[in-house]
Each structure stands twice: as C-alpha cells, then as structure tokens.
Amino acid sequence: MEQATKVTSEHSLLQDMSAVAQHQSQEALGRLFDHYAPKIRLFCLAAQPGANLMADDIAQEVMIRVWQKAHLFKPEAASLNTWIFTLARNARIDYLRKNSRHQSDIDPEYLWRNVIDDKADPFKDAQHHRNKTQIEQGLEQLPSEQRQVLYKVYLEGKTHKEAAEDLALPLGTIKSRVRLALNKLSIYIKR
Amino acid sequence: MLTHHPSIEMLTDYAAGSLTLPHAMCIATHVELCPDCQQQVNKLELLGGQLLTDEKQEQRSLEGLKNALFARLQEVPEKAPMTVGKNIQTTSQQAQHTNNLGYRVPRSLKQFVTQAYDDLTWMRLSPSFKIATLHNEKGGPQISLTRVKAGAHMPTHTHTGDEITLVLEGAFSDESGMYRKGDFVCRDASHKHKPIVTKDAECICLTVLDAPIEFTGWFTRLLNPLIRRHHPLSS
Questions:
Q1: Is A81 on the interface with B (CB under 8 A)?
Q2: Which residues of B are less than 8 Å from A83 in CB distance?
Q3: pLDDT category, A53, cuts 50, 70, 90?
Q4: Is residue A57 within 8 Å of residue A44, measured between CB atoms?
Q5: Most exposed of A39, A113, B124, B129 (fewest Cβ within 10 Å)?
Q6: Using one digit for the tens of pLDDT, what is the confidence trace for A83-137?
C-alpha cells in the first residue's frame, strides 16, 4: 500500500514537471514546491542548524532552477529526486563557500556534472531503473546505525572524518558502516 | 587503462557534497576520465536523492516563501537556454583548445585553465621540472600543475601534509607502481618518494597539497624556501 502511494506521488510529480516544461504552469510549480521545498529546507538545516534564512534562500534558488530547467530534465535518464538532490547539494556548497568562514574562490559549478547533461542511452536507463529500485528497497531494511552515518554524510554534509568526531567513534568504524550500507544497497561492490 | 581510483569514502563525500573543493576538483577530474567511477558517483547521487526525499516533513508553513518565489518568477527569464549557467564546455566540445600535442583540458579545471596548459605561467624549478600554481585556497591547500620532461625524475621529496596527484597527461612510476592518465594517487605525510616519468612522453599532473612539500635531495633542498613561499599556509 505504502509502495503504491509512493509510485502515484512520483507519477504526479513527473506530470507537474512536464506541465512546467511545456506550458510554464505556475500551479504545477506550486505543487512541486509543496513537495520539495520543505525537504530542501531540512537538508540545509541539517548542515547548519538554525540557519533558516539560508534554508529559505536555497529552497527558492532550487525551485527557480526547476522553473528554468524543467524542459531539460529527462525522466527516463535520471530520477527527479536525484536531480533535485544535486541542485540542492550544489546550491548549498555554493552558498557555504560564499558565506561561511571557509570561504573559497573555487566555483563548484565546474566540479559536479549535472545529471541532466547525460545523453540518452536505453541500456543505461534500464540500469538506472534497476539501481533506483535496489536503493529504495534496500534503504528500508538498513540497520539504524548505518542509516545514521549516511545521514551525517549526505544530509549534514560531514566528511567521514567529521562524522567520526561527531559520533565519537573511530574513523574505521564509520568507514565500515558506510561500506556495509553501500554494499547492501548494491551501490558499492569491492573491485 | 587507468588503475588507481579514489577510495569509496572519497567518492561518497564527493557525491554527498561534503568534500573540500580542492579535493572535489581532483575527484571531478578523475571521474571525467573514468567511466567506472562516474557510474559509482551516479549511484551515490541516486542514494542522495532517496535520502533527501525520505526525510520527514517539517510542519512549518511555507506560504510566505512560496509567495516570494512566485514574485521572483516574474523577474527571471522563463527558460534557460540548452546550455545553462556558465556555459562550460565539456571535453568533447573543446577541440579548439587542444594544442599540437592533442592535450585536452578537463572541464573540472576550466575555471583556472581557460585555454591550453601552455598558456599558464610556469615556474621552472629545474631543467626538467616546472610548476604552475592554479589556485591558493585561503589558509588551505595549494592547487597546481606539475610538468616533468620525458624520462626525468621529480626531485625526491616528502610531504608535510597530504598530497593528491592526478595524472593529466603522460605517465610516471615510483616505488609503489605505475600511474597513467586519469590515475588518482593519494599520499600522506609519512611518504617519501621519487617519481620517474616514462621515457616516451612528458608528464603533466594536477596536484593538491595540504602543506608544502619538502625536497630532501642534496641540491634540491635549496628549493624549499621557494616552494614554501608559494604555498598559502606560509602567507
């Protein structure tokens, strides 16, 4: 049942995306905002607790990109969640490098490819679909200690080293938890 | 065939966006040259998308923010052109920037190497060894390119901090192995090594140094003050 609602909501989000792409529907953008803006804000607040202004700025920035780039998004080649994640990640990096004490002149725009730049490739698309299902299903079964470390790295934006300091655990423990998790999600198979 | 890859930890930190920008630059360059790691990063980004959306919703009303967004929409152009943002050329589009040796500057370095490697300001440290500083991060690492002639060896040196080397052109070897185009090498402070460039071609590498390297050779020790002066930590 839960799986079914997930699929429907994903389907309607994709319909909203194409409505934005094809006839600049503000209503559809509003629905995308309702779904994603709170998540993007949480993503920012995880890294900078209490930084509501930053969270608002980045959520707005990401939604403007969605508005402008919706027509470039190809649902068969990339997942919408992933695209939004990469937009939010890059916007957060850019915000922090301009506004935090770790200022940097290196422009992150050059350092992360955009998922929508990929050329269409039926083989890759099928592969992508398989990966996505494996990750979705695997995440639900992950032990909480492994989930916690993924949360630190992805949402709080901590490096493995910082996550180890935060949790007062040896770096090796963090590394092995992440590896175990990535293994279960079939993301990482040791070469 | 490149054989030396970044660790899964570094790839994860890169995909998650938690890696420092100088290190991210090395990963981005490697990923551009390595389809395997590219795939790995794609999957790690998929995970990011899933983790982002699995989060519980916050209860706060965002109506104000939503209205602000719609007000801003009036001001921004409706559709981004097919090439969005800063119009950064990808490797396949930049044939005009290759020189007679056929070198292509990776997209990840385009902010600092806008044309060809030859157009950079190279500082000659020995007859066979040149260095060009791309960027000094404030109080952080130094990003540079090193260029060593075919068959020459780099001066023996130790690292006072971590060093990441990425082979952009040519190949070199040291005590631990052979490194070719795209290979990613991470060395820590305990390492003392003496890389030798293969005889067939010169070698250009991207290096990110957390702290200045120290030459340990009899003659090249004289270069240390020079190297240190150019590292951002010393200023």
A1: yes
A2: 49
A3: very high
A4: no
A5: B124
A6: 999 999 999 999 988 887 667 899 999 999 877 666 667 777 788 888 888 898 8
Tokens of B221: 């020790």
Indicate yes or no: CB of A85 within 8 angstroms of CB of B52.
Answer: yes
Distance CA A84, CA A119 (A): 19
Q: Does A22 touch chain B (CB under 8 A)?
A: no
- Chain B residues closer than 8 Å to A191 by CB: 5, 36
- Residue B189 binned pLDDT confidence (cut-offs 50, 70, 90): low
- Residue B173: half-sphere exposure toward Cβ, Cα within 13 Å: 8
Q: Between vectors from CA B101 to CA B96 and to CA B103, what angle results, nearest 5°?
A: 55
Structure tokens at B151: 């068959």
- For residues B75 and B85, give the distance between their C-alpha atoms in angstroms, rounded to a whole number: 17
**pTM assigned to the model:** 0.87
ipTM of this predicted complex? Answer: 0.92
Helix (H) or strand (E) holding B156: none
Contact A131, A79 (CB under 8 A): no
Structure-token pair, residue A61: 């920035």
Chain A, 158 to 177: residues with Cβ < 8 Å from chain B are 158-160, 162, 175
